Structures are given as structure tokens and as C-alpha cells.
Amino acid sequence: MNEDFTRLRRWLHPKCTPLPIPAGILGPFIDLGDGRVMTAREGGLAISDDDGTTWSEPNKPDDGSDLPGGLLLRTRENTLILVFIDATTFKWGWIDETSEPIANVRGDVWTMRSLDGGRTWIDRQQLLDGYCGCLMDIIETRDGDIVVPIYQLLYDPGHHTTSTCVSADQGATWMRSNIIDLGGHGHHDGGDEGTLVQLSDGRLLMLMRTSWDLLWETFSEDGGRSWRTFRPSAHDASSAPGYLVGLTSGRIVLAWNRLYPHRQNYHTRRGMEASAVAASNHREELSIAFSEDDGASWSEPQVFAVDRDTKVSYPMIFERRAGELWITTRWQGNLQVKLFEDDFV
């Protein structure tokens, strides 16, 4: 790999191609099965029939209501499911002296579904009455269950925990798993911002962001209804989330911010009110790795995007076609690139 990027402020791997998507359209994307791609934008759903170069105006529901942005999934039965944080009641505050949240912080999580391509929405219901600051991932399992990780802020000590909400009936009703509480103390501490993939034996693997130099992993043997094994994963990581996808090839792909910049062993850390133990806040490089054995082993991570000024974090991966990956970032960097799986394995 050309390693000149270590001296550059911005860099893109030569095997990556910028997507022709207009600025600000960062996903999530879903395949409509007829060559078109859809995304949920503030105010409605937008569709592209030219691989993202142009998009329709956001299509509001028939009742004229605004559709919030959020996680969007199209199931194999052609149901659209939207999971989102209610911005209208959002409330956040942190008391640095005690490292505790203010009373009644709000980041309530809701869901609704559409059976007619987004023209009307039904079964609006609350999945979390509490605080969740970010939703990372949603999947449909081979059994048809819908699974979405949701993190929740707890008090005294203030820190984040993770659970999953599962629907076995296309988003009509939901149940919540046990809470995964890894401990911690701070507004960026604990285990949160989970990403999911189903393994070949049917189990679910979830990777969670932590402040402890590694992504942590947990497994479910019942489709996300319970999680019993929690442990550090093999992925060194800064305090930032990763993103997993099971690919058509059978491989699993992971994109994330590693613990330190390429070929370095140090980066600035922050603790205090953020976390009980000072954590690396390296978000200047995004790396990618692949597994061919259900996550038991991984290819050597490769840096594919660098932005040392605005950073580059919170990746999402969309397999547009078999082996063709669209990777965007929702929080920092506004990255919009295409790469091919076979160029990196």
C-alpha cells in the first residue's frame, strides 16, 4: 500500500472511488430490488435510479407529515421499517463536577413501518423511554427477525449500556433483550453504539464501542433476544463505533477507527467527564478488514480514508451489488466512497 498518506492531511486509498452522491446524502441506503436505491432524509424518502448521482425530492407520507431521518430497512417481505430518535423531545446535559447527566435527559427511540413503499406509516411505537444519542445498525436475520441495537444512558454512575430490540412480525411488535452493562463512568463510557452481523451457524455477533482500547464483542444464540457472552474482541479501537456487514461472498467486513494512526503507538486521549479511564480519540483514519471464518480471524486492517482536519468516523457500509461497497460517514468527514471487496482481500 502507498504509505505517503501518513504525511497527508487528507487521503483516499487509490482503489477507492468517490461516489457521485450529492453532499449531505450519507445514508443509510436500501436496495429496492429494481435497480433503484432509497434513503431516509429529513422530511421524507428519496430515491435514486442512477446509482446516487441524482435523487428525488423527499417524498412525504400521504398525510403530509414529516418523516424523521433514522435507520431504514427493507425486509424480504417488502416492509419498510424506520427506527429513529425523537428530536422533538431531545434533551441533553452533563454535570462535569460529578460526571453525571442532568435530570431527565431524553433521546427516546421510536419505530414505525410502511407496507406500501413509504406512502403511509403504521404501528408507531416507542422502543426506548430514556436517552440514546445514536443509532448505528439494523438487520434482518435469515429467520426474518428484525434486530436493532439501542444504547441507554444509566445514572449513578452515568454511563452507557446496550440492549437489542427484536421484532418477529415485520415491525408490528417488539421485545427488548437483557441489558449489556460493561460498567464505566462518563458521558462516553460503557459499551454502546453496537453493530450486528449474523454468523453462518445462526448466532448473532455484536461489536460495541468502548473506552478501553478495543471493541467488545457479544453473541446471541436466540436472534438477539438475549446476550450471555461479553468479552474484548481482537479489534484495537479508539473510542468510536465500527460497522459490520455480512457480504454476498460469505465474508464479513468491518470498518472502524483503530486505536492509533497507522504505524504509530500514541494518540491523544481524553478522560475525566468523558470516561473513567482516558481513551484514545483517534478518528483521523478509517480502516477496513475482512473475515472469511465468521470472525474467528481477520485480514490485516488497511487504512482506506484519512482526514486529519475534520476527522472521519461513524462509518456505514452498503453492499450496492455483490462485492461493491458504498462507505459513508454520518458524523465526521462526510465520506462518500465506493470500493470493491476483492481489491482489499
Task: Note the topology.
Layout: E1 10-12, E2 17-18, E3 29-31, E4 37-41, E5 44-48, E6 71-74, E7 80-85, E8 94-95, E9 100-101, E10 109-114, E11 122-128, E12 139-140, E13 146-154, E14 159-167, E15 175-176, E16 192-198, E17 204-209, E18 214-220, E19 229-236, E20 243-246, E21 252-256, E22 269-270, E23 279-280, E24 285-291, E25 302-307, E26 313-321, E27 324-332, E28 336-340
Antiparallel strand pairs: 1-25, 2-28, 3-4, 4-5, 6-7, 7-10, 8-9, 10-11, 12-13, 13-14, 14-15, 16-17, 17-18, 18-19, 20-21, 21-24, 22-23, 24-25, 26-27, 27-28
Commentary on this structure:
The protein is mainly beta and 345 residues long. The chain has one domain: 6 Propeller (Neuraminidase), CATH 2.120.10.10. Helices cover 0% and strands 42% of the residues. The strands form eight sheets. The chain has a five-stranded antiparallel β-sheet with strand order 1-25-24-21-20, with no helix packed on it. A four-stranded antiparallel β-sheet has the order 2-28-27-26, with no helix packed on it. Strands 6-7-10-11 form a four-stranded antiparallel β-sheet, with no helix packed on it. β3 (29-31) and β4 form a beta hairpin.
Number of strands: 28
The CATH architecture designation is 6 Propeller
* Rg on CA atoms, Å: 19 Å
Report the CATH topology name.
Answer: Neuraminidase
Average pLDDT score: 95
The largest sheet is:
5 strands, antiparallel
Percentage of residues assigned to helices: under 10%
Tell me the strand order in the biggest sheet: 1-25-24-21-20
Total number of domains: 1
Counting H and I runs of at least 4 residues, what is the number of helices? 0
Q: Identify the CATH class.
A: Mainly Beta
